[in-house]
Amino acid sequence: DAGVIQSPRHEVTEMGQEVTLRCKPISGHNSLFWYRQTMMRGLELLIYFNNNVPIDDSGMPEDRFSAKMPNASFSTLKIQPSEPRDSAVYFCASSFSGPLNTGELFFGEGSRLTVL
Amino acid sequence: AQSVTQLDSHVSVSEGTPVLLRCNYSSSYSPSLFWYVQHPNKGLQLLLKYTSAATLVKGINGFEAEFKKSETSFHLTKPSAHMSDAAEYFCVVSDTVLSNTGNQFYFGTGTSLTVIP
């Protein structure tokens, strides 16, 4: 398996522009997580999906952020409009979880976003 | 409520000496516990996991951790540090519960390991 695939790996954009980050989870996994990592705030959970349904989006900073998972093999995280303080590395991770079974998280390589 | 405390934000060791990274957790249920490593500009990689089998867990690159329920600890150790071990380490807890909403993962704040030549 190719692992969790994220794109783009790097993005540089100007304030006010729309940014879309993409994630392909590992086939067969039923949970997908979006994290943001910065030096100041460390690793933060933004949102997670189970069976394509958003379960907890309490970590989404504000209405400028939105995430979708239209099917089991694809998810997007969108920022519109982007601001300099959104500059961070965004990680997608997936896992398989079921009753009495916790699989580990598998992380993508991350998308490094710079908003000028 | 579930939470993880990594007792040291920075640890510095000399090459060839033992490594100890400390982690305490709180969990209302039977926990699964993990250690992840993150090298600079990389994603997080699983080092090892505990899921209610043997309490001493062996992982990759010579690391191991012992689950101690009475102490609610899951400390990470390695007998002899290598330069390539310099990285950020995260302790993670997840509850194994009957749930149709999936399992959440709770991360510690990380421990930065420096290895001195």
Structure description:
The complex is a heterodimer of chains A (116) and B (117). Chain A is mostly beta strands. Helices cover 0% and strands 57% of the residues of chain A. Chain A has strands at 5-7, 10-13, 19-24, 31-38, 42-50, 53-56, 65-71, 74-79, 88-95, 97-98, 101-102, 106-107, 111-115. In chain A, the strands form three sheets. In chain A, strands 2, 4, 5, 6, 9, 12 and 13 form a seven-stranded mixed β-sheet that branches. In chain A, strands 1-3-8-7 form a four-stranded antiparallel β-sheet, with no helix packed on it. In chain A, strands 10-11 form a two-stranded antiparallel ribbon. Chain A starts with a strand and ends with a strand. Chain B is an all-beta fold. Helix content of chain B is 0%, strand content 54%. Chain B contains no helices and twelve strands. Chain B has strands spanning 3-6, 10-14, 19-21, 23-26, 31-38, 44-50, 56-58, 64-68, 73-78, 87-95, 105-107, 111-116. In chain B, strands 2, 5, 6, 10, 11 and 12 form a six-stranded mixed β-sheet that branches. A four-stranded antiparallel β-sheet of chain B has the order 3-9-8-7, with no helix packed on it. In chain B, strand 5 and strand 6 form a beta hairpin.
